[in-house]
Amino acid sequence: MALFARLTSRFNAYYDERPLLTMMVTNSILGGIADTVAQTITSVRERAVRKHPNGQLNPREDALAIEIHELDRKNPLTDRELIPDSRTLPPPFDFERLTRFMAYGFCMAPVQFRWFKLLEKTFPITKTAAFLPAMKRVAFDQLIFAPFGVAAFFTVMTVAEGGGKREVYHKMRDMYVPTLKANYMLWPAVQVINFRLMPVQFQLVSSAVPSIEMRKQC
């Protein structure tokens, strides 16, 4: 607890001095952590798949993966992603992908930061009015920013991987709606807590780790 308090105090000090830069660095670090978790989950799951007799896992048995199986069907594992001559070892950790995610988090932070500032200004939370403004923030965030954020994520990451218009189109066609559905299953509830209880400087931190499933599918 003492360490957490010191980190929080240091974060607040950096935020007071340079709020935007602090958010960009924090978003980048959290993006890297989220992608590391996503790659680890994928690695564990693929190892289990390779050990399974028919090469597939029953969704009810797949307890280790934070999985939306509709996305798996849209983006199945290809042969070139498998390690040659191995059915037990996980795929190697993708440091280039990690770098892309951290760069995306760094560059996306100003947009998210200004969005949260806009919500805070448009729907102020006071001692006498807290719940309704928070719900309005959630509604605007999920109906406006979430669709934009998912589209931006897949577009930027596909281009960063060397894809062109065709690849972006296919990614959006196959992944956009399932990912948005997955987002709506979890993040509205998270954002209610985020907007209702978190100071503005921590709202971006609380939202900086988007769906691990979305990262796993890239």
Automatic annotation (TrEMBL):
It comes from the Eukaryota. Coiled coil: none annotated. It is found in: Membrane. Pfam families: Mpv17_PMP22. It is a multi-pass membrane protein. Keywords: Membrane, Transmembrane, Transmembrane helix. The chain crosses the membrane at residues 143-163. One of its GO terms (cellular component) is membrane. Its main location: membrane. Belongs to the peroxisomal membrane protein PXMP2/4 family. PANTHER family: PEROXISOMAL MEMBRANE PROTEIN 2, PXMP2 MPV17, VACUOLAR MEMBRANE PROTEIN YOR292C. This is Uncharacterized protein. It comes from Parathielavia appendiculata.
